[in-house]
Amino acid sequence: MRRLQSLRRDVDRIDEQLITLVAERFKLGKEIVALKKKLGKGIRDEARERAVIDLARERAKKNGIDPVFAEDLMRLLIAQMAGAQLERVGGVKMWAQIQKAFEGHPAQLSVARVFFGYGLRVRENGEIACGDIRIPDVQIAKEAGVDRRAVDATARVILDRKELRNIFINLRPIAYLKGVAQQLGLGVIEIIPKDAAKTGIISDVTSVVSKFGIRIRQAIADDPYFVAQPKLTIITDEPVGGKIIDALRKLPSVQSVIVY
Questions:
Q1: Which residues, other chains included, contact 115 with Cβ-Cβ below 8 Å and sequence gap of 6+?
Q2: pTM of this prediction?
Q3: Residues 163 and 122 in one domain
Q4: Residue that is last in its domain, among 31, 61, 88
Q5: Could you give the CA distance from residue 48 to residue 52 in angstroms, rounded to a whole number?
Q6: How far apart are CA 26 and CA 78, in angstroms?
Q7: Is residue 173 part of a domain?
């Protein structure tokens, strides 16, 4: 029993280091986007990304790790960083409008992110609700990492601005199966598209899945006008195999595929 506890402490320590390293990587990403903006360069560099992924696969093999897993991990990090960079330079249309509304008020912008991320709506009286269940301001403030007063201020700004009001008073949460897929024996496929604003992506992906006789339980697509790096998440009746993953990766609309 002591040995098990010791091993778990080692795992916790490594997990902490992993998160710290990811945070450092994203911090470097901020510096990179500032330099790219100064140099007039684009956000994505496919040649660089390919080199990073190839190196990750090579290092994975040397350390006895599945190179496919290493590639999926790197693609997820790259996509997240690229999305954050795109957001900072105003590349997300609708979210750019929200950023402008809260310009100079980062705490309020953080609160707006929480509202949108959890599907929390702003009531006419300024209260925040999940469906019809009122959510205390203190809980939202804790999640956003801000003072409770920032929640009230954010709600007031939203209700005073028509373009924001029409969005945030109509938000609704959904029952998202991704977090319980493993417990239910379901499969999870995350698709990062090359251009989420183009039509036909969901159709392309679902057609491939259906050809393999796999039933889709849920399909959740991030709004490309709100999310900097949108993904299409497909929940299937069962975990998927390598052949379907390869078929999805060959789709011209797909940048990368991550399977859980």
A1: 121, 122, 128, 140, 154, 158, 168, 171
A2: 0.63
A3: yes
A4: 88
A5: 6
A6: 10
A7: no
